């Protein structure tokens, strides 16, 4: 090892000596190369892009390698360009992009399903409950003898071992939450429209809150819809055992996760592990709406 080290140092020394000899011999033109620069007598550069960046430059959209996505032990931010779409067992003529799963310690899965024409989603695996929210297009559920239409902004909950099939004739974009049911109760199929769900008291908070599933011990998670006017922010700086999977549906703001502060906008998804400090401020010029999974009612010690 010692002799290899000596050879390396020797080579560097020889290289430096050669440079010292050659440098004074090279003409200024050779050093400056073919493209003139200010220091080589070329035109004076100006930096208008640095003085007045365009909105496009501020968005960083087209800079290769740039992403706001981040992954840490207790949280992750997944922005649109980081979604990976793939075929998934049970989904026909549809692709899915998983954003949260037990692979990173979560007690649930959160994914988007891009359903094409004449597509379908088979029931979830045995013992798994599923919540589906329609983001775009139209889906339908065959529930017993009924055929239930689900338009944008509507949702359906399928209890564990449901045999109902989700389908779409003309295509639909869905947000899906799934969990291995762990409450020991009797959850039942339900569906509805977000705006039909009543607003719940939130004081001292100012945001508007809806919970899309019944608040009983039959359910081991709920799905909240939270609305903020521009400038509104969370009063509490929560740290809790519950886990979250969030999708920003509308608006922009800053999400604080642990010691990091993330600018976020519609389309961004967030995974929050237990006990990550969390806080949000809606700072865009338009209202924020997000949908968020929260596990509930299961004993934190035994769950
Ligand atoms: C779901 O079905 C499996 C058998 O396929 C059964 O073991 C399990 O208890 C059922 N789960 C629920 C919550 O009904």
TrEMBL record:
Membrane-crossing segments per the record: none
Keyword Endoplasmic reticulum appears in the UniProt entry: no
Domain Cupin type-2: 225-291
Molecular-function annotations in GO: ureidoglycine aminohydrolase activity
Signal peptide range in chain numbering: 1-28
Domain of life: Eukaryota
Keyword Glycoprotein on entry: no
Key words of the record: Signal
Name this protein carries in UniProt: Cupin type-2 domain-containing protein
Organism, as annotated: Chlamydomonas reinhardtii
């Amino acid at each position: 090892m010692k002799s290899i080290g000596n050879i390396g140092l020797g080579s560097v020394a020889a290289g430096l000596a050669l440079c010292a000899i050659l440098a004074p011999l090279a003409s200024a033109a050779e050093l400056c190369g073919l493209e003139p620069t200010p220091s080589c007598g070329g035109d004076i550069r100006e930096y208008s892009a640095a003085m007045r960046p365009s909105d496009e430059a501020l968005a960083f959209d087209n800079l290769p390698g740039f992403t706001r996505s981040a992954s840490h032990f207790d949280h992750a931010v997944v922005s649109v360009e980081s979604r990976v779409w793939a075929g998934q067992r049970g989904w026909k003529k549809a692709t899915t992009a998983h954003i949260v799963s037990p692979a990173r310690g979560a007690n649930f899965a959160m994914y988007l399903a891009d359903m094409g024409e004449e597509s379908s989603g088979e029931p979830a695996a045995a013992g798994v409950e599923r919540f589906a929210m329609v983001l775009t297009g139209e889906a339908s559920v065959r529930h017993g003898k009924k055929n239930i239409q689900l338009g944008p902004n509507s949702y359906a909950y399928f209890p564990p071992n449901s045999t109902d099939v989700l389908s779409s004739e003309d295509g639909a974009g869905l947000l899906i939450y799934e969990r291995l049911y762990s409450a020991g109760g009797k959850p039942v199929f339900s569906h509805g429209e977000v705006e039909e769900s009543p607003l719940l008291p939130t004081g001292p908070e100012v945001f508007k809150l809806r919970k899309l599933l019944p608040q009983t011990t039959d359910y081991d998670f709920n799905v909240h819809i939270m609305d903020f006017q521009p400038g509104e922010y969370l009063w509490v700086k929560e740290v809790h055992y519950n886990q979250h999977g969030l999708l920003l549906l509308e608006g922009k703001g800053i999400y604080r996760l642990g010691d990091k502060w993330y600018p976020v906008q519609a389309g961004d998804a967030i995974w929050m592990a237990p006990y990550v400090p969390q806080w949000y401020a809606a700072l865009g010029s338009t209202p924020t709406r997000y949908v968020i999974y929260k596990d509930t009612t299961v004993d934190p010690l035994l769950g």
